[in-house]
Each structure stands twice: as C-alpha cells, then as structure tokens.
Amino acid sequence: MTRTADMTSRSTSDASPFPLALWTDAVYSRSAIPATLATGHPIAGQAAEELDPPLHGRRVPLASPTLRLSPPSHSPASLSDPALLAALLHYSYGLLQHDLTRGGWPLHRAVASARCRYPSELTLVTPTAAFRFDPLHHQLVKMDGEMTGHQAACPGAARFVVVTSRFARTQRLYGDYAPRLCAQEAGMLLGAVHLVAAALGLRTRPGQDQETLRGLCAGRLTALGEHPMGHLEILPSVHHPQDRAWPPPDLASVLRTRHSGAMLFDPEPAFAPGELAVDLGAALAAAPFTHFSCHVLVQRVAGLTPGHYVHSGDRLCQVGEGDPLAMLEQIGQSEGRVSMNFRSTACVAYIAVRRGEAVARYGADAFRRVHLVAGAAAHLLCVVAARHGLAARIHNGYDATTAERLLELAPDEETVLFQVAIGTPRPGAAFRVPVVF
Asked: 288: domain range?
C-alpha cells in the first residue's frame, strides 16, 4: 500500500473521523492545520459551550489519591478498593499540576495534550452502568440514570476502562488537524491507564476493535462529535516480583513531576544519566502493544556513543555511529525550517508503525489503531524522561518522508507517528504547584 492510495479525497458522506486523506494532510504534511493557529485564536464559529456540553448526572466522590503506587499488601488488587480506584484514575488522567503563570495553560493532567485541550474522556463501564471520570473535581459522574436503593451500581465493579474523545475541544484551535492530535492523546491515555494499573497490581488487556467499542459506548456518548477510541479490560490481579524493572517503585512521584518543558523547548546542552537508556528499554518492553519500532538519535547520554539506536527486546542497540545532529535537523523540518533546538537535546526518539500493513487490513480505521499503539509507547518515553529529571516534548514538526529515509524504515510501509525530544529543562518563568485532593 503506497501513499498514492492514502491521498483519497475526503467524502462528506464518510462518518469516520479518520479519512485516509489524513495520512497526507496531517502526517506527511501539516496542511490540515488552519492559519488561525498562529494567532492562538479559535476558528470562527466554534462555540465551546455548544460543541462540548458539561457532564450531567449523579456524582460519586472518590477517595483522596495515595502518594505512592503499589499493589495492596494484604489482599488481591481490585477496583472495589476505593483507594486503588482513586489512584488509578488520578494518576492516569487526573489533574497533577497547576500552572500559576499568568496567561499560561493553568491545569496539567497526567498525560501530554496539545495546548492542554485534553479532548479525551475516561469512563468506567460495569455490567450494569457507566461512570465518567471528572478530573477537575476528582469525582465520577454516573451516566445511566439515577442510583436508587439496591439497584445502585458500584464503580468498583467496573470491568472495562473506555477512552473516548471530544474532538471539539481541539478542533477550535486545530481545525482538520484535530483528529491526529486526538488520536495521539487517546493512545497516550490508554498507555497511562495500562502503566498505572500495572503499578497497582492490576492487569489490563488493551483493545481496539470497533465492535467491542460500540457495545461499551452504546448510549453513553454525551456530546456531538464524541468518538470511541479504545478500551482496556480489567483482569484479575497478578503478583509482581519486588525486583521488577518496570513500572518503577517511585512512579507516583515521577508522574507528579512529568512535564513537557517550557513553551519554547530549549533544553540545557547537558548529559542525561546512563540509566535513562536502561529505563527506556525496560519501559518499551512493557508497552501494552508490540507492533511499533522506536529509533533513538543519541547526542548526550552518559555511557552511550552518539549515534542511531533502535529498541530491541528490553534494550537500545546501536545501528549507526556519529553525531546525529544533521539527521535531527533534516528530519525536524516544519514549514521549511528546523522546528526546535535539536542542538541541545540529550536524545530524540521516533516511534514508527507499519502503516501500509494496517491500512491494507483496516482501511481508514488504521489511523486510529496505529496511533493508539504509538501513543501508548510515547507516554512511556515521557515518564522515563521525568524519572531522570528531564523534560520530554512531543512535537509533530518533522518531515515523515525524510524520517523514513534517514532512519532506514521500510519504504511506503513504516511511518513515524511521534517525535519525542528529551533534554534537561532550563529554569523558566513558569511556576507550577502540585494539585492535592
């Protein structure tokens, strides 16, 4: 399947939010981005109140989140444990930081999001009801009517966590480019739930198939333009050996400090610790999906020779030597110029998927599926960076065709979906404080 087939025109009768044209308009170019984005103003006619109505329903308070993430010591892990349920939701998609900088983006959740629009929604689905997570109030909102007497459903009986996306939140700034950003974030959120669940002793089975999603979301989409994205089945708990490589025992504190750097990503030209590479290998080996590759161009990581590395098994293996700056600046082109200061990064990771194979099998739905795969891995990279005091910036300002060529991906088959720059953040004017419930 070549890119010629990807250039199929959008059809107004196609209800899919991911037409094949997105590969050309949003991945191989940025032509879907509206000119108004440069001004920071919403697209005319996009009223947030009409397109993104608030949640209504009976509210269920959650316990205060714990300060550490670990399996229960005296009983199997279960969502019926109020502390475990609260921790899973808070550290997957809750509000963790408040930016006090005037004019900044004030509320930051556990995953990265374009301009902090956070289009994703997280819903717990039990055999008889559904509960949507409200991060702002650290509560659940019951979606299937009132809870009365013995008929009341318990959130702890949830068997599935469902990720949906309200595109309107992102479309107001990004127009037709929003589906890509929403798909990227949905993948990161799916990876976040998988990671936190593992730290709490829970097992999950991530899923992408449309039939299961439609069943889980039947009658439960609350807004026009809300789209099912992915789900995770909650499975019986499993005992984790104390010496497991991933997730790390300090995951809660790592997630509380994770950030994407200053608005202008301009890190210090400092070496990252050698343990970064070890953690990258272990984290990617524990990713919920395996159908991706990760290429890392290393400049400043202690103990590693500068060059091109590829993730294999649970480690990074070098496939090319030499200063990768020229490659970074050739790949990192946006609107004809280098999109960020690659000269100061410690390393830059590129997550690629087998686009051609996915399109041949799933058609337009391949776009959603492979972004879930890549997004889950991208979140792990961001968490690893945070564990070592580094910032990780997901930046779509790169040339996918050049990336294919220089990273020696399979032509017209493999495609880079994420570029993640990692570096030592400089002191900035922003002042953030932790959010405590």
From this structure: 259-423
CATH number for position 377? 3.40.109.10
Query: Is 380 part of a structural domain of the chain?
Result: yes
Domain membership of residue 56 (yes or no) is: no
HEC string of the chain equals CCHHHHCCCCCCCCCCCCCCHHHHHHHCCCCCCCHHHHHCCCCCCCCHHHHCCCCCCCEEECCCCCCCCCCCCCCCCCCCCHHHHHHHHHHHHCEEEEECCCCCCCEEECCCCHHHCCCEEEEEECCCCEEEEECCCCEEEECCCCCCHHHCCCHHHCCEEEEEEECHHHHHHHHHHHHHHHHHHHHHHHHHHHHHHHHCCCEEEEECCHHHHHHHHCCCCCCCCEEEEEEEEEECCCCCCCCCCCCCCCHHHHHHHCCCCCCCCCCECCCECCHHHHHHHHHHHCCCCCCCEEEEEECCECCCCCEEEEEECCEEEEEEECCCHHHHHHHCEECCEECCCHHHCCEEEEEEEEHHHHHHHHHHHHHHHHHHHHHHHHHHHHHHHHHCCCEEEECCCCCHHHHHHHCCCCCCCEEEEEEEEEEECCCCCCCEEECCC
Q: For residue 343, is it within any domain?
A: yes
| pLDDT by position in tens, the chain (length 437) | 344 344 333 333 346 799 999 999 999 999 999 988 887 777 766 555 556 777 888 999 999 999 999 999 888 899 999 999 999 999 999 999 988 877 666 789 999 999 999 999 999 999 889 999 999 999 999 987 554 444 457 898 989 999 999 999 999 899 999 999 999 999 999 999 999 999 999 999 999 999 999 999 988 887 668 999 999 999 878 665 555 678 999 999 999 999 998 878 999 999 999 999 999 999 999 999 999 999 999 999 999 999 999 999 999 999 999 999 999 999 999 888 999 999 999 999 999 999 999 999 999 999 999 999 999 999 999 999 999 999 999 999 999 999 999 999 999 999 999 999 999 999 876 678 888 88
Residue 437 forms part of a structural domain = no
pTM: 0.93
Q: How many domains does the chain have?
A: 1
